[in-house]
Every structure is written in C-alpha cells, then in structure tokens.
Write the structure tokens for this entry.
Amino acid sequence: MPITINVNGADHDLDATPDTPLLWAIRDHLQMTGTKFGCGMALCGACTVHMDGQPIRSCTTPVQAVAGRKITTIEGLASPVAEVVQRAWNETQVVQCGYCQSGQIMSAIALLERNPSPTDGDIDAAMSGNICRCNTYQRIRGAIKNASKQLA
C-alpha cells in the first residue's frame, strides 16, 4: 500500500513499508542525496531534516510518522533565513570534508528561525546533536553568529 509524504512542497507516493526510515525514503525512493546517513541511531545529526519547521533525525523517523506533515530537506530550502545561513557558511568557510554540513545547516536554520539572536549557549544547545568529524565547530558557531548579524 503506497504511503504519501510531502517533501519540499510536493506530495510523493512511496511504495514503502510504514516503518521505512524517512532517510531511506528521501535518498532511495526520491533520489535526494543531500541528507546523509551517519550513524543510523539519531546521534550524529547528518540526517537532519525539518518536519513542520522543526529539526528531526530522519534515520530513525518512520515514514508513517510524517504522513500529513511537511518535510524539508537541504534541497528544498527556500526561506530568507536559509539563504543567509548558506551565504554565511560560505563566507566563513565552514566546510572541510562537508559530510555533516547538510545536517549542520538544517539545525542552524531551525535555530535562527526561532531565535534570530542566539547566545553562545543557545547555539551550543541547538547544535549539540550534530557531530563534525573535522572539528569545525568554531567555524560553525562563527557562521551562525555571522548569519545572526545579517538577520538583525
């Protein structure tokens, strides 16, 4: 039985079991590869997407749990905050290997959309579930602060 999910503003009928992780629906069924597999246990943040504007870990979220909800992936970002964050990421030269960056960016956008002037503590709390193997945490914080200033 097909499952319908809304990703990046479009409804998609999937031939998948209800317990299929959203990550695999996005990557394998919809061919959107910006969302990454990291740990498969919702610990690293590489698979972060937005569900109704809130960051979630797609590797442990079954597709049945997103029916009727709006999912946004890195490919579907279109808000003014998203534009500022992506520009700040480039200006700050955050990326090293880049593997975790889509999840980092998704978490940063969710933070700045609800709190456009975060403190260091706010940034640390919002980004704590995102692991960067290359240890670019200072550049990530710098990019978020840069984006915050641009949003002010």
Observations:
- The radius of gyration is 15 Å.
